[in-house]
Amino acid sequence: MKSPNHITLPAEWAEQEFVQLTWPHAQTDWADMLDEVTECFVNIAKAIIKYEHLLIVCVDSEAIEPFFDEMELSKISFIEMPTNDTWARDHGGITIFENGKRTICDFTFNGWGMKFAANYDNLITKKLFDTSIFGENTDYKNQLNFVLEGGSIESDGEGTILTTAECLLSDNRNNLSKKLIEKQLKEYFGAQKILWLHYGYLAGDDTDSHVDTLARLCPNNTIVYLKCDDESDEHFDALKKMEEELQSYSPLGVGGSYNLIPLPMADAVYFENERLPATYANFLILNNAVLLPTYNSPKDKIAAEQLQKAFPNREIIGIDCTALIKQHGSLHCVTMQYPV
After folding, report:
1. In 3D, which of 198, 169, 199 has the Cα closest to residue 184?
2. Residue 164 pLDDT > 60, yes or no?
3. Among 58, 105, 321, 333, which one carries the catalytic annotation?
4. Using an 8 Å Cβ cutoff, are 21 and 335 in contact?
5. Mean pLDDT over all residues of the chain?
6. Mean per-residue pLDDT, 264-273
7. How are beta strands 94-98 and 101-108 bridged, if at all?
8. What is the model's pTM?
9. Residue 1 has pLDDT above 50, yes or no
């Protein structure tokens, strides 16, 4: 279903041309655990290139190339530039199709509401476009008058966007009313329906509750979401209320309710006496596969089985992300897909 202005924001399960990773280096917050996080990035990269091409944004490609063999390197493009950090989901370009033409939207990334430096990361998308990595048949749209991170919105490709009020209505991003934010989302993405989550959070999260840590739109009017069964867990009440919100939603033009598939709440993970935002909702959809973040827990297997229900025809591949959550993010957060 096309919106009147013929803009669509494709779902993540639409066919992809490549995925972007922005590689960690010694001038990032990963400095004290660079070997550990690099191993995780290599594992993610090797999983991606089994299914599609990979773009690695980095400060030094020669330092990364030895991790891959010749065949693997043939499926990787390296583009060098300065970077502050590694969260490609939030500084990467957001792809729309406008009158059928692929367009890379470059929104402002301000370090999740000016919490962290983002002066280099906010320039990445424009620099990538200038390298012609997207090819000749792709347009660039400067949307720098609006702050938006890719992890804060979910699209079904049919006109519905799922997001959280905590993030999109935060003072340090756009400081606009809900009504005005909705108007902007409909204008930028051709959206016809905005589903707002007012509940749900993760301890240790820096993003003001990005939706990709809590609930995800999936094919066939399905939403996969975090469910907490432990009444003693601090997240129990908020996630219960989030579940009730999800139960009240109906798919655009279909009626009824969404098919809801719960993911287990990850076992609590602590680092330096702080609870980390470990979540199974932060998965990455690829062509013919889904990469699931895992945390060395018996719940990893349960999460994979639940996710398989949403993606019965895709391989579910676990990636140990215990390194990533030490900087308060996970697998989806460090990747950005670019559809064909």
Report:
1. 169
2. yes
3. 333
4. yes
5. 96
6. 94
7. antiparallel
8. 0.96
9. no
> Can you give the pLDDT at residue 3?
43
Note the pLDDT of residue 5: 62
Exposure string of 30-69, with b = 16+ CB inside 10 Å and e = fewer, is beeeeeebbebbbbbbbbbbebbebbbbbbebeebeeebe
pLDDT tens for residues 66-76?
999 999 999 99
**pLDDT grade for 116, boundaries at 50, 70 and 90:** confident
CB 214 within 8 A of CB 121: no
Pairing of strands 16-22, 160-164: unpaired
Six-digit token string for 41: 């990035």
DSSP designation for 253: T
What pLDDT sits at residue 2?
45
Strands 53-58 and 153-155, bridge-based pairing: unpaired
Per the listing, tokens 């204008």 go with 187
Q: Which of 92, 225, 89, 66 is nearest to 151 (CA)?
A: 89
CATH node for 7-339: 3.75.10.10
Q: What is the mean pLDDT of residues 234-238?
A: 97
DSSP code for 320: E
Q: How many residues does the chain have?
A: 340
Q: Confirm whether 333 is a catalytic residue.
A: yes
The distance between the two most distant Cα atoms of the chain, rounded to a whole number of Å, is 55
CA separation for the pair 285, 218 (Å, rounded) = 10
Q: Is residue 282 a contact partner of residue 331, using CB atoms and an 8 Å limit? A: yes
pLDDT band per the 50, 70, 90 thresholds, residue 216:
very high
Distance of CA 188 to CAs 148, 151, 153, Å?
Answer: 11, 16, 12
DSSP 163-201: EEHHHHT-TTTT---HHHHHHHHHHHH--SEEEEE-S--
Show the tokens assigned to 153: 């919105």
User: What order do you get walking across the sheet with 193-197 strand by strand?
Assistant: 153-155, 160-164, 193-197
**Tokens 């059928």, residue located:** 100
